[in-house]
Amino acid sequence: MFGLPSNPERSTLGENTVYTTELKSMPLPKEKIVIGVYKFRDQTGQYKPAENGNNWSTAVPQGTTTILIKALEDSKWFIPIERENIANLLNERQIIRSTRQEYLKDADKNSQALPPLLYAGILLEGGVISYDSNIMTGGLGARYFGIGASTQYRQDRITIYLRAVSTLNGEILKTVYTSKTILSTSINGSFFRYIDTERLLEAEVGLTQNEPVQLAVTEAIEKAVKGLIVEGIKDKIWGKSVDDVSSYQTVIDEYDREQKDNVNRVIGNKFTGNYRQNFAVFVNVEAQKIKDDYVNPKMNIGGKIGFKYFMSPSFNLEFNSNIFTLENENIVKRTFFVPEVNIEYLLFPKYKFTPYIYGGAGVMYSEIKPQYKGQFGGGFEYIIAKNVGLRASSQYDLGFKDKWEGLINGQRKDQALRFALGLNFYIGNK
What we know:
Elements: H1 18-24, E1 33-37, E2 41-42, H2 64-75, E3 78-81, H3 86-103, H4 109-112, E4 122-144, E5 147-166, E6 172-196, E7 199-210, H5 213-235, H6 249-262, E8 265-266, E9 270-271, E10 279-291, E11 300-310, E12 315-328, E13 332-346, E14 353-364, E15 371-385, E16 388-399, E17 415-427
Parallel strand pairs: 1-3, 1-4, 2-4
Antiparallel strand pairs: 4-5, 5-6, 6-7, 8-9, 10-11, 10-17, 11-12, 12-13, 13-14, 14-15, 15-16, 16-17
């Protein structure tokens, strides 16, 4: 049911990431750039977290230099040269020279000469500089009469810095920085119930999936290589390899858009912004139900229209007018015109989605004497379009006196519960 492996699998080629395809489809340079990588290593010193005891396995793969060289090859922009194990290369060349001198003494001396090694105009430095565990965790579950299900997730994060250094004068030409989250998820279901006094039925099912760290590191490195290429095109550090910047304009524009969006990105891949203005008008449709001194209260539909002034991004002052219908079936039905004043607090004003709470007071007008009340409530808002927010909320009304329906009975004041769905229209300056 969950694609559980039941047979051994054959070895396969390594998986590609989304940036592998993007690197391979990059516009080609006029000529490739010879580049050297001495080491691009794990600099975090982080070990895998262990629930019990110590775990001396590193959290980050130790072959990140090889991953970087593969990304450079896939881009078709660079000619990577061997520098990580340069001693092995030099030793082997020395063995070749010694062998030729000893066994080919009478041969043409020109045939004994080895071609010179390539030298790099640019060196790449950097590494994996951080591995942060459990930057975000959470879960959800429920159980009813022995039947339950739950899900959990955890996010880790790696961060990579990559810099290009000129071998001519040691100048650091460009530095790029990328990060990638690593997701682990778990889904579990269980059944536990006594069928009768002597029989117990118990069942469990579950699935856990962990994103491979190697693929996360590969994706972050490939992203860094792509960013380095585009930054180099923009700043003209690739020299004769890029003679016409206009032929790469599509890639540059795409990169600039991503950079612009990245300005407002925060941890958790969330984007902040000024989605709300200084003023807002709103309209709600409400379902209302009274809790008074009569029996058989009936739910009715009402409406609300109002205005908000934001004193700060989180706090606003709200004025509204609404129609509220009090009804007990076959006993009393009364419609009130209700102006209200509220103070509202938005928990995350810089995000499209935010919870909010509010509270205030109002006056209920009808054919009888005005009734005073207090109210509090809360809900959620999501910005569905520019300057338009969709809201869902609930409100609890509590009367200061016990005579909304004209009857005073008992100690409990008259109360009401409302559920609303509406739209906020933002106007003014951000």
